[in-house]
Amino acid sequence: MKTLEYAIKGLRAPFYRRKHKNDPFFTCPICRYHGPFMAKNQRLHAKCPRCGELERARLQFLVMRDYFAQHDVSSKSLLHVAPENAFRKWFRKEFGQYTSCDLFRKDVDHRFDLQNIPLADASFDVVFASHVLMYPEDDVKAIAEIRRILKPGGLAILPVPFVHEKTVEFGAPDPSTQMRREAGLDYYQRFEQYFSRVEIFDARNYPAEHQLLTNNGAKAASMPYFVKDGWSSDVVPFCYV
């Protein structure tokens, strides 16, 4: 169903491009659409009208594409947590073994809580979990579980939105977002507890034609990856076993 929904949404792209022909044009690296991007709430030029993916997914795609070009993953195994539709087909093509999981969704291979993963130690070469760690009650336990199921030499790609200098813990889930925390720069320390090395890939180091920066308005100035005039950058952490 989700695949059909994405396909139907993709039909809007040529009409949107024609209607907004005087807006800035960008290129989506995921689906190769070239034209104006859509706004997402207050965020200007955020969403690709063809594939529907946002700034963070475009950055993640570019970072992973570079990694795959340098590392043959055709015989490797991947666990895709809370799978993004735009990445599913690509991951299946790149990896020798693809497995998806989520806590609630039915269109996945497994349903489980990251705080208690029912899989054997050293099961996967790569785990990809984007914008997931803001939700578990015990995110450190979830990180430890991800590390446990990774093979020697494995890699965890664990993007989270960095919005503060120091991580803010809410305790109970936020009523509007269901998040239990908002990450700050000190969040890297939680990765470093379990991984030998953490490498950070910053959107500012990638071509502007893909529109990877996020327009956060006035609050951007207080964010750790502030750029200028309401815009902030995003990063992708690679956590190596």
Automatic annotation (TrEMBL):
It comes from Permianibacter aggregans. InterPro entries: Methyltransf_11, SAM-dependent_MTases_sf. This is Methyltransferase family protein. It comes from the Bacteria. The keyword Transferase applies. Pfam families: Methyltransf_11 (PF08241). Signal peptide: none annotated. Keywords: Methyltransferase, Transferase. GO terms for molecular function: S-adenosylmethionine-dependent methyltransferase activity. Residues 110-157 form the Methyltransferase type domain. GO terms for biological process: methylation. The keyword Thylakoid does not apply.
